[in-house]
Design a protein that fits this description.
The chain is built from 11 helices and 15 strands. The N and C termini lie far apart (70 Å). With 417 residues, it is an alpha/beta fold. It has helices spanning 2-28, 44-63, 83-96, 108-121, 151-159, 177-192, 213-223, 240-249, 293-308, 321-340, 345-352, and strands spanning 30-36, 71-77, 101-104, 125-127, 140-142, 168-174, 200-205, 229-234, 259-261, 281-284, 356-358, 364-367, 374-375, 379-383, 389-394. Helix 2 (44-63) packs parallel to helix 10, helix 3 runs parallel beside helix 4 (108-121) and helix 10 (321-340) packs across helix 11 (345-352). Strand 8 (229-234), helix 8 and strand 9 (259-261) form a beta-alpha-beta unit.
């Protein structure tokens, strides 16, 4: 009996060792990728599509053989539009889930929350959304726009003859770091162009704000004081739906007071009747309506992926700028890993410098060699009745990012790491 027990124990030990080694081998055959986006709360309206885009891109790469002969494995977490929770989830991804890289965040407050974690643990975050600049970290690659790739060109367009020749400006945003810092930059820019303080109105609302009746009335009063007025909107998340609905309710048309938005794209307009909003504007680096072969393939690929994965409201599925930036970022990271022949953070960071990718925007985008930002084209789109944008102005080619705005004193020598 003792002999049988010993043999059984030995067999169990061998089986256990085999299962453990198989599990290790299985884990070693994949590269884990962190996806850090709000799938609930006020920012879910914007961020869910970025999670979907990351999964689609990972599927695409895996179908073509993966990276370094290994399949990519997505590890998805939901920080639930809770800014401190972003930091907790980032630490979990890096220390517990052992991801090689993280793609995520939308708001600057979420990025600021996770930044110390990535720097402390020397991990990499790819951040896919336009932001206020005034930051440069060796642990972040910024694939969205800096202010000179969105905010400044948009205001220059509004001041031009083609843009309506605006003389007064309403700076309206959600109350957090991105709108406030962007508007600080825009105030300095407008002042440099001779715009008086009395011709600038500035107002903020909290995340999730839904009652814009009073604010729209204030804008109408401000615009009725004699000079051509435009609104620059840095409202984020699901507050955009009641804001645009109230614009329509109060009959504030683009011909009277044009609104240019920095955080509203095709995804946010899915929940709005856009017919009263025809002519209002958005500034991005990509629009779904752009006509070229790369974009046609991108749209077709996303719609097919959405159908296969039973994404809700299939008939209104759209692509947008941060989705394109997510797609480009994942492909550039893949290229850097293959160049470095490793997922080691320091090696990948070095290999990212100068990476290029033919993007759905129709332009070949480049990761700058010194400042971790993409060179990107700038486009101004006009809202159409179907929720799409007609591109009314664009740059001839990609623009190099200025992470530190020249309109903020002391930034002259801060443009690279």
């Amino acid at each position: 009996m003792n002999r049988r027990l010993v043999m059984k124990a030995a067999a169990a030990a061998v089986a256990s060792a085999w299962m453990f080694s198989a599990g290790v081998a299985s884990a070693a055959d994949t590269i884990k990728i962190g996806v850090l986006h709000s799938l609930s709360g006020t920012m879910a309206i914007s961020e869910t599509a970025l999670k979907n885009t990351a999964l689609m891109t990972i599927d695409e790469i895996n179908a073509k053989g993966g990276v370094l002969g290994k399949k990519l494995e997505a590890v998805i977490v939901d920080p639930a539009s809770n800014w401190p929770l972003f930091a907790e989830k980032a630490r979990q991804l890096i220390t517990q889930d052992k991801v090689a890289v993280v793609f995520g965040c939308w708001t600057s407050v979420s990025r600021k929350s996770v930044l110390p974690v990535f720097e402390e643990l020397n991990s990499l975050l790819f951040y896919p959304v336009q932001y206020e600049g005034e930051e440069l970290s060796q642990n972040v690659f910024y694939t969205g726009a800096a202010p000179n790739q969105q905010a400044i060109p948009a205001v220059e367009y509004l001041m031009s003859k083609d843009g309506g020749g605006a003389k007064r400006f309403v700076l309206l945003g959600t109350d957090y770091v991105y709108p406030r810092t962007t508007n600080k930059i825009l105030r300095a820019f407008l002042k440099s162009k001779g715009v008086a303080e009395a011709d600038i109105m500035e107002d903020y609302t909290p995340f999730g704000h839904s009652d814009y009746q009073t604010i729209i009335a204030k804008i109408k009063k401000f615009a009725g004081e004699g000079k051509k007025t435009a609104v620059i909107s840095t409202i984020n998340g699901d507050s955009n739906v009641p804001f645009y609905k109230e614009l329509g309710n109060q009959g504030l048309k683009a011909t009277d007071v044009p609104v240019v938005a920095f955080s509203v794209g095709e995804e946010e307009l899915r929940g709005v009747d856009t017919k009263p909003l025809i002519g209002h504007l958005a500034a991005w680096n990509y629009f779904m309506s752009v006509k070229n072969g790369q974009n046609g393939a991108f749209i077709k690929q996303y719609k097919a992926w959405a159908k296969a994965n039973k994404i809700p409201n299939l008939d209104t599925v759209v692509t947008n700028d941060p989705m394109e930036a997510t797609y480009v970022g994942i492909h550039m990271w893949k290229q850097a890993v293959e160049k470095a022949k490793s997922t080691d953070v320091d090696k990948v960071r070095a290999a990212m410098a100068g990476q290029t990718f033919k993007s759905p925007s129709g332009f070949t985008l480049k990761m700058d060699e010194t400042n971790h930002h993409l060179h990107k084209p700038v486009m101004i789109g006009e809202v159409q009745g179907d929720g799409q944008f007609d591109v009314v102005w664009k740059t001839k080619g990609p623009i190099r990012a200025q992470p530190w705005s020249p309109f903020i004193a002391g930034n002259e020598n801060k443009q690279k790491l």
